[in-house]
Specification:
8-stranded antiparallel β-barrel; about 55% strand; about 10% helix; mainly beta; 4-stranded antiparallel beta sheet
Length: about 230
């Protein structure tokens, strides 16, 4: 029994040592960081129906996109930090779903979702491996919405080409990630974020469509501590 306790104590000590291995430039209070990488956004769509006179059950699906991301961070304390995620617009293709599945591309839209996080970082600032959790606010800005001939056929048969826009929205985002030190200044970082986003699509015909997008974002990058 004593031997097992000693072995357990040794394993715990080894795990603790791995978690708090010191670095000469710890990410501590007052420090700035800059990360660059790639981010994939995958909407988890729950589509409402396009309002009448469209065919009942006319829904939409939205595909994913991957773009470069630039992330600026500032340590408010040894365990609290603020982070601003920026990037280039994500271009999403909108396709028919539900009763109109198989109709193909209905349109495209670009989304720009800057996000500001407040994060809690585990372990002490000198730790080599630092998991973190974040709570943030995302402003989903939609631009360059373009409809296709299929969209016109569904919403305005025989009429003028249908255009559309998507309401911009402020939404809550949850985040989980980990940073791993490479050396005194450089580190790698990976994070997953879930945004809870509901919006409305508005067509030039006067029709509307409620959309729950709830995108899941996964990013990896490399960072530098100033």
């Amino acid at each position: 029994m004593k031997l097992r306790l000693n072995q357990a104590a040794q394993l715990l000590a080894l795990a603790a040592a791995m978690g708090v291995c010191a670095g000469a430039a710890a990410q501590s209070a007052g420090q700035w960081t800059l990360k660059a990488g790639v981010n994939k956004i995958t909407p988890k769509v729950e589509s409402g129906d396009v309002s009448a006179p469209a065919l009942p059950g006319s829904k939409a699906a939205v595909d994913s996109d991957t773009q470069p991301v630039l992330i600026i961070g500032y340590s408010l304390s040894d365990n609290l930090s603020a982070e601003l995620d920026l990037g280039t617009p994500y271009k999403h293709t909108i396709s028919g779903d539900g009763a109109i599945a198989g109709t193909g591309k209905l349109g495209t839209v670009e989304a720009l979702p800057p996000t500001l996080f407040i994060q809690y970082r585990f372990f002490n600032p000198a730790a080599k491996v630092r998991p973190y959790l974040g709570l943030g606010a995302t402003y989903a800005y939609f631009q360059k919405a373009r409809g296709s001939a299929q969209m016109t056929a569904i919403t305005n048969i025989g009429g003028q080409a249908t255009t559309f826009k998507i309401d911009n929205k402020l939404a809550a985002t949850l985040q989980a990630g980990v940073s791993i030190a490479i050396n005194e200044r450089w580190f790698v970082d990976a994070a997953v974020a879930k945004t809870y986003l509901k919006t409305v699509v508005r067509f030039s015909t006067g029709q509307t469509q409620d959309m729950t997008l709830n995108p899941l974002a996964v990013n990896v990058g490399i960072g530098y501590k100033f």
